[in-house]
Design a protein that fits this description.
alpha/beta, 33% helix, single chain, Rossmann fold, eight-stranded mixed β-sheet, disordered C terminus, 8 strands
């Protein structure tokens, strides 16, 4: 079932959201968009559908700058406040379902920054659909410095051709984070999770891999403890 919703963001701004839920959801993933495209981007539509098929509901939402028609992303404090408001709205829309949060590129990074400042209520793990570790051709791990302050487990889904995340550097970040982080490498995928035709794989294959990995990782949190306590269902 799909519902078009809205919720109150920073300074009372009304922001749009889409709740896609299966008949019996096992998880609710609060899913933020990337910098240049909103919650209706085809990739987010498609991954939400694949997750729904696996009993994972998604709550996609707009950041204020795209709600207003585009332009430069809002300052980080506004983005962080929006993440927090979206998590609260998702919990109200689909109560009693354990939550994950995160998103595509910028959306995932802003989610983890918000969680590093203060835990996101009800969220048991953060899922990155392509963590933007650095700008293209400027390898660095500066953007990962806050990740050690996130108290819940982290799942990194990264393509081997991602120009915003050197794979060796991403692996080093995950090693530094220890048991709190898991890296799943998507062979041949770029930052948008597109693959070359010569790879022999299709975008459908990649979407199925992403969705299956998210569910497998989330289900492993049950009883293992996530943050302050074990996941309850």
């Amino acid at each position: 079932m799909r519902q078009d919703l809205d919720f109150s963001g920073p300074s009372g701004t009304r922001l749009s959201a889409i709740l896609l839920q299966p008949a019996r959801p096992r998880w609710l993933y609060v899913l933020a968009h990337g910098a240049g495209a909103g919650m209706r981007h085809p990739f987010l539509e498609q991954i939400s559908e694949r997750l729904c098929q696996r009993e994972v509901a998604t709550f996609r939402y707009q950041f204020p700058y795209l709600q207003a028609g585009g332009g430069r992303p809002d300052p980080p404090p506004v983005l962080h406040a929006t993440v927090r408001a979206a998590v609260e709205a998702a919990a109200a829309a689909l109560p009693s379902i354990p939550m994950l949060a995160g998103g595509k590129s910028l959306g995932g990074r802003m989610t983890s920054q918000a969680a590093a400042k203060q835990p996101l209520a009800g969220v048991h793990g953060v899922v990155f659909l392509g963590f933007p570790l650095h700008p293209p051709k400027e390898p660095s791990i500066t953007r990962a410095e806050h990740l050690g302050q996130v108290s819940v487990p982290l799942l990194f889904l990264q393509g081997t051709r991602d120009t915003l995340a050197d794979l060796a550097l991403t692996k080093s970040v995950c090693v530094r984070l220890g048991s709190n982080a898991e890296l799943h490498v998507v062979e041949g995928a770029d930052h948008s999770f597109k693959v070359l035709k010569r790879s022999g794989r299709t975008e459908t294959d990649v979407l199925d891999e992403l969705a299956a990995t998210i569910l497998r990782w989330a289900d492993a949190l049950v009883g293992a403890g996530a943050g302050a306590g074990a996941v309850r269902r």
